[in-house]
Amino acid sequence: MFVRLPDVSAKDVPITIDGVPFTARAGDTVAAALLVSGRLACRTTPVTGAARGPFCMMGVCFDCLVTIDDRPNQQGCLITVAPGMRISTQRGARAASAGVQ
Amino acid sequence: MTILDVAIVGAGPAGLAAATLCAEHSLSTSLYDEQAGPGGQIYRGIAGSPLARPEILGDDYWHGGSLVAPFTRSGARYVPQATVWSIERRDDGTFAVAITAGPPHARHTLTVEARAVILASGAQERPFPIPGWTLPGVFMAGAVQILLKTSGIIPEGRTVLAGCGPLLWLVASQLLRAGATIDAVLDTTPRGRLRQALAHAPGFLLSPYFARGRELVRTVRRRVRVIEHVTSLAVEGTTAATGARFAVDGQTHSLSIDQLLLHQGVVPDVNLAGAAGCAFAWNELQACFAPVVDAWGGTTVPGLYVAGDGAGIAGALAAEASGRLTALAVANALGRIDGSARERAAQRHRRDSAMATRGRLFLDTLYRPADAFRLPEGDTLICRCEEVSAAAIIELARSGCAGPNQAKAFARCGMGPCQGRWCGLTVTELIAHAQRRDPAEVGYYRLRFPIKPIPLGEVAALATTSEAMHAVVRSPD
Amino acid sequence: MTRHFDVIVVGGGLVGASIAFGLRDLGSKLAVFDEGDVAHRAARGNFGLIWVQGKGLGLPAYGTWTQRSARAWPRFAASLRDETGIDVALRQTGGVHVCLSPRELDVRSERFVQLFAQPGFERFDVEVLDRAGVAKRLPGIGPDVVGGTWSALDGDCNPLRLLRALDIGVERAGVVRHARSAIVAIEPHADRFGVRTAQAEFTCERIVLAAGLGNARLAPMVGIKAPVIPNKGQIIVLERVQPFLSMPLETIRQTDEGTVLLGDSQQDRGFDDAVDPAVLAAIAARAVRVFPLLRDVRVVRAWAALRVMSPDGFPIYAQSRAHPGAFLATCHSGVTLAAAHALDLAPAIRAGAFPAEYRPFALERFDVRAAA
Question: Per the structure, how many domains does chain A have?
């Protein structure tokens, strides 16, 4: 479990995670927001369906993949939250035709 | 297309320092980085950390701020959210650098031409392959440090740290200062190592770095239960980490956990330099591969330099000095300063580098991860992306597998999106160990562009040539 | 260590491994020698097609040979599965070659007219499709696709799993394998060959050169020439996606793992096997035209490999006249021909002579061309 320090000064950023509203803070990466929202896992793998979540937080492990505004397999730790952002956890392989064309 | 004097990859201490000095020598300079803000990993969030209490992170962190202002003033161009994924040296000695940049909804791809390229993409935490290390709730210690730096987030509940190395103690102390509770630190430093390390570097005992490091460890020990000489470690749990099982002196113990933070040192990120054709060497003490570089960071590819931890782990202050030495080399190579000016200017940076690396032999000896934590067995996953076990690699090695590339072809390790970053060293060492060969001789994965996954449409948008189009068959038009 | 073998196969790639598999009942009287981990290794760069359509223009026997191999593949895959437990994901439900302009379609149809007009060419069914015909088989096909050709004989498999299965198959049969053992020299004697590596010396009664580009250096040692030169090809691999492509295209296929392979390119760049980003861009651009839905699917890796190309692009199966125990086998369609190599070529080697029907693939055809 993760918790925000009480004296953090960043502004609120409203997002949704799997359709559920959540208040992140300015400067949070999507992965950070997921963790502080109480979710350790963000996807299941396409190889065996095992649960995975953010691991390295620096863009080199590719375990924090989530769908952001309908775009699948985004690295949550490299993307900063924005107001209205829609984050979805993922199951298995992405659909070929998902995403904004 | 205008040609840059120098393209620099990575906005950590080496990249920031190099870019600043290059621009100050009137070289047209662009600095590309994947993150949204400068600082790399060690100074992550330095330009916008939301922490109200700077003392949480300590002075060494805030030193990073001294790099940002001069960089901003220098005139170098800063390009954040940019992934450099290919570097091609052309026949005329210039480089074509492929970059995909921008926010997720507006990515664009471009080719930048540069006369020189400095790779400063630094290091990553060393793989820590133990049973259950892929479970949610298991993190690298650096990951949790990033949460603290950039978002003011700390773990709560039952938190255990495990491993070895200066960063483990630094993260522990930062978390404690921020108000987190740590149930235990499981120290995997083997017995007898301290004596070994001291024998190698008695001079280091007198340096202020040693005193600070020792004080840091003592501070943590005063407040946290530290279990030393842990010889094995496994994570328990099915869909998330629920426990840490470890052994000390032949006895097994178990701790209930909510999260486990792992760390056993850092290793160079080799993918860009490797794919660009640089020669590499195995560093036996640090148990990793690093590019072969001269005193200025020049690799075996003329015009391509590596600065900072990417050339060999030496820490943030050494990375700064390394970046400045490389900038001087480029300034000289491109005719801005002559050889004697380069030499004169280099003196100070060489001194800084020597000071900053004084404890290296001591730390590397002390904290070299034990075999047990570099040579997993059985079902332990060694390739996180393709979910390949240690047993699969060991079996291939025992049946005569020629090396990591054949292992990759047969077992799929290294084929996933991380491109071997979390399995490459383990695969090399497992094969070396099973076949009684030197890791230097076993070698590493053949690295290729793109060195990060790139959307197909962005690759399609890269500039191509009529020769390349003709090469793609069945295009008679 | 055993030093004498009935047969030594030089080369552990697809050609060598298939032949060795076909000879595996020799057990420990057969040895396969292979180079180190980083060598040219066309086999590791293979796309994975088992492809018939379009082949044989200029050499009708090649069309026959290819079809024979494709028809033998199910039997071949079954024996691999039975003996090694490995399923190489054989899929032979047809394949499509797409055309992105009316001119491409014309050129493609014309090719089959010429192909079938050749005396002795073994015909097979191929359908010229219009756009609707392609779209019916390949949902999501892009607007630039105007048509294509379809053949029921085409298919694919998992080429790396094939290589692994062949390796295990020969290992289980007791065949001796020497990895990291490049051949330094071959010395023909009256009744045997001396074979030298950096570490040791061996002898054998018969030797099969299946060393790809390495054949050029080895062939003269047994009195023949292997006029093979490298032809560089690049391939892009995309991340796993849910199944969307149920049959292979000649340059796009979805693997049984869910990843997507994109090809291909041909360049004469000598032994340069670096990935050329401009070629990646050209492959990517064409793939996006064929399947626009792949636009935001990520490239997770790419590679370049060197095809083993003969002067006319057709296989070479040769037997040395000066030293009849020496055989040469080389091709650039190692997956398609793997079944024929194991089930047809290997028995011919065991019998001691290539049959007359292999003559079109012999080296003499190059002398004829030179003379003409």
Answer: 1
In Å, how far from its chain's centre is CA C329? 11
Distance to chain C for B156, nearest Cα, Å:
35
Q: B365: how many CB neighbours lie within 10 A of its CB?
A: 17
What fold characterizes domain C229-309? D-Amino Acid Oxidase; Chain A, domain 2 (3.30.9)
Q: Which region holds residue C58: left if phi is over 0, alpha if psi is between -120 and 50, else beta?
A: left
Residue C204 Cα distances to C13, C278, C329, angstroms: 20, 47, 18
Domain span holding position B73? 3-124+267-337
Band (B1; pLDDT cuts 50, 70, 90) = low
Distance CA C203, CA B448 (A): 39
Scan for tokens 């483990």, then name that residue. B168
Rg (CA), chain C: 21
In which band, very low, low, confident or very high, does the pLDDT at B210 lie, cut at 50, 70 and 90? confident
Cβ–Cβ below 8 Å for B136 and A51: yes
CA–CA separation, B42 vs B62, rounded Å?
10
Confidence at residue B202, expressed as pLDDT on a 0 to 100 scale: 75
DSSP state of C105: H
Residue B332, pLDDT > 60, answer yes
Residue A21 belongs to some domain of the structure: yes
Sign of the dihedral defined by the CA atoms of residues B190, B191, B197, B202, in that order: positive
What does residue C114 show for φ and ψ, rounded to 5 degrees?
A: -65, -40
Contact C239 B417 (CB under 8 A): yes
Please check the confidence at residue B477 and state whether its pLDDT lies above 50. Answer: no
* B352 belongs to a structural domain: no
Tokens representing residue A24 in the block: 């992140």
Nearest partner of B97 among B82, B107, B75, judged by Cα = B82
pLDDT at A98 (0 to 100): 65
Which residues have a Cβ under 8 Å from the Cβ of C82 and sit 6 or more positions away? none
Chain B environment of C267 (Cβ under 8 Å): 467, 471
Q: Identify the pLDDT of residue A17.
A: 98
Q: Is residue A30 part of a domain?
A: yes
Residues 37-66 of A with CB under 8 A from C: 46-47
| Confidence at residue A101, expressed as pLDDT on a 0 to 100 scale | 42
SS3 state of residue C133: helix
- Tell me, rounded to whole angstroms, the distance of Cα C368 from its chain centroid: 25
Using CB atoms, list chains with 3+ pairs below 8 Å to chain A: B, C
Among residues C305, C314, C334, C331, the alpha carbon closest in space to that of C162 is found at C334
What does the block give as tokens for B370? 């034990």
Q: How much is the ipTM here?
A: 0.97
The pLDDT of residue A41: 98
